[in-house]
Predict the 3D structure of the following.
Amino acid sequence: MDTFSICTAADWDMEFKKHEQETAISDLESGKIIFCPQLSFNVDPSEQTLFIPYLINKKTKNISFNLKEKRLKGIKADQKYQVCLKSMLTRFSEQANYFMNSLFSHYTNSLDIGRTSYRPVQVKNRKTSARKDDRRLHVDAFAANPNHGNRILRLFSNINPYGEHRVWRIGENFKDVAQRFLPKINKPIPGSAKFLHWLGITKSIRTHYDHIMLKLHDRMKLDIDYQEQVKYKEISFPPGTSWIVSTDQVSHAAISGQYVLEQTFYLPTTAMVNPKKAPLHILETLIGHYLI
């Protein structure tokens, strides 16, 4: 299967034809990356001061932004920088939200906008633990935020002002990942999900699905032999381009690059055109029972 699907949109406020929307949804649900080579996020001259890596707290990978609360997390800069960054991330989030709802009109009223992030650190130089190392192939799952089967859709935009590409690796398809690692995943300890929620470690109760997805994420990253031997494609996203991917489905790794914006969305599987392509359905089919 081809890794890429090309979207020729050049503006964030594009209106798409029905056949373009149908193709985009089919490609996204099939695990393709929708690459938008002409979709560039414009950084205002006043925001050029944000191209410094030490804006970020050393304990975090990214600066995250909650659009609803207008709250930044992971930044250590003074108030002047915070105001400027909030302005840029608000604009990016609003444009990304409009674009996603226009391109994927079938998902309208079902897409739930999540966090926005700014990634100013050079990926290839970042020191972190193996579980947090995004240079290792993985599928997304969140330890503190169970998503109960909802899809994780992400829109990225490379705003690097120095011409540096964002380099990714794309691994094997989700079914192959699941078949490889499922035999190594034990069932959750009875009562552990409620206990973790009671302690405040998770924001909601982990389902069996969330347990499996988190274990897949961790086992992929921690398996050095797998990381070295599995087949992958290396792809490059130039500055001034954007791309959309289902990161809970597509095995991916960010190898290098700096200064990227990202907007997360959540989508119920019931809103999909073909729910059978969701990780939830694939896992339930392989295991033989419901996980939610």
In short: The longest strand covers residues 112-119. The two ends are 29 Å apart (CA to CA). The chain has a mean pLDDT of 95.
